[in-house]
């Protein structure tokens, strides 16, 4: 399973998602879009938004931290 997480350092929901994924032992790759403009552009193309967090799970894109949607997508 490939999980990409687009975040910024000041995003509280980003921190919550990272904590949740670590607790569930789900490996993920994090991209700080405040420092990586290429990844920021990639995130915007995938999600149609500039807001974070954005999670890409095997090509399925979730915006924000909705625990129920996240759990369903990880199954």
TrEMBL record:
Residues 3-61 form the Glutaredoxin domain. One of its GO terms (molecular function) is electron transfer activity. CDD domains: NrdH. InterPro entries: GlrX_YruB (IPR011911), Glutaredoxin (IPR002109), Grx-like_ET (IPR051548), Thioredoxin-like_sf (IPR036249). GO terms for biological process: cell redox homeostasis. Gene3D superfamilies: Glutaredoxin. It holds the Pfam family Glutaredoxin. This is Glutaredoxin-like protein, YruB-family. It comes from Spirochaeta africana (strain ATCC 700263 / DSM 8902 / Z-7692).
């Amino acid at each position: 399973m490939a999980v990409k997480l687009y975040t910024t350092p000041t995003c509280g929901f980003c921190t919550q998602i990272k904590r949740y994924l670590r607790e569930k032992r789900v490996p993920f790759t994090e991209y700080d879009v405040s420092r990586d403009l290429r990844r920021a552009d990639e995130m915007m193309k995938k999600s149609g938004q500039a807001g974070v967090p954005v999670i890409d799970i095997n090509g399925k894109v979730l915006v924000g931290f909705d625990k129920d949607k996240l759990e369903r997508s990880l199954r």
